[in-house]
UniProtKB/TrEMBL annotation:
Binds 1 zinc ion per subunit. The keyword Lyase applies. Pathway: Amino-acid biosynthesis; L-methionine biosynthesis via salvage pathway; L-methionine from S-methyl-5-thio-alpha-D-ribose 1-phosphate: step 2/6. This is Methylthioribulose-1-phosphate dehydratase. One of its GO terms (cellular component) is cytoplasm. InterPro entries: Aldolase_II/adducin_N, Aldolase_II/adducin_N_sf, MethylthioRu-1-P_deHdtase_MtnB. It comes from Cohnella herbarum. It is an enzyme of class 4 (lyase). GO terms for molecular function: methylthioribulose 1-phosphate dehydratase activity; zinc ion binding. It comes from the Bacteria. The lineage of its organism: Bacteria, Bacillati, Bacillota, Bacilli, Bacillales. Its cofactor is Zn(2+). The keyword Zinc applies. GO terms for biological process: L-methionine salvage from methylthioadenosine.
């Protein structure tokens, strides 16, 4: 915990302030139905062996803002300060993504479109997206670029998903889907993670509507 105590109070407040803004915007878009979804943001120095991040508390109504919306945890998901709050159920997923990527922020939401495409393409274990302009949001500039967004198994015991993240994460693609559950998107900071999340949601809706049109022919 000593590494966490060296992080300034100003930095902790900055992170929580940015978090509060992102949470409010996502709530206004209806991305937290039924308290679902979670957000995290890394804070302080990073190494794969030791890092800290703020994460949404479990079971909170994310359409409201309270002093107990977030807590700080370490690379093991252990709270860094005395608290009665419990980290989000998906904290183990955030931990692994941070460990593998060194990301600065990770946003996980549930939407109708990301749930539908995760089931539609489950047999191939990835969502194929080709030639859509918004692929450039992931810094992929190839003409008619094609990406395959990984789909992971939706285990009720969330830590069982972690080995699939380790195995399936594609360094080019800052996101992954959990079958009939939701999307995790990340970036070097909150701005980039938000940009990536918005791009994924646009692309998933595009894929859904394109499949619908093709199946009517």
């Amino acid at each position: 915990m000593s590494g966490f105590t060296r992080i300034s109070l100003e930095e902790k407040r900055r992170v929580l302030g940015e978090f509060t803004e992102v949470k409010a915007e996502f709530a206004s878009r209806g991305w937290f139905a039924g308290t679902g979804g979670n957000l995290s943001m890394r804070i302080g120095p990073y190494s794969p062996e030791q890092f800290f991040f703020a994460v949404t508390a479990s079971g909170k109504d994310k359409t409201r803002s309270t002093p107990e919306d977030f807590l700080f945890v370490d690379q093991d998901g252990t709270p860094c300060e005395t608290t009665s709050l419990k980290p989000s159920a998906e904290t183990s997923l955030h931990r692994e993504i941070y460990r593998l990527t060194g990301a600065g922020a990770i946003f996980h939401i549930h939407s109708v479109f990301n749930n539908i495409v995760s089931e539609w393409f489950w047999d191939r274990r990835s969502v194929p997206i080709e030639g859509v302009e918004l692929i450039k949001a992931f810094n992929i500039w190839d003409e008619d670029a094609r990406i395959d967004v990984p789909i992971l198994t939706n285990y009720a015991d969330v830590p069982r998903i972690v080995p699939e993240i380790t195995e399936r994460l594609d360094p080019r693609i800052p996101g992954l889907l959990i079958r009939k559950h939701g999307v995790c998107a990340w970036g070097k900071d909150a701005f980039e993670a938000k940009k990536h999340l918005e791009a994924f949601e646009f692309l998933f809706e595009y894929v859904y509507r394109w499949e619908l049109l093709n199946n009517r022919k």
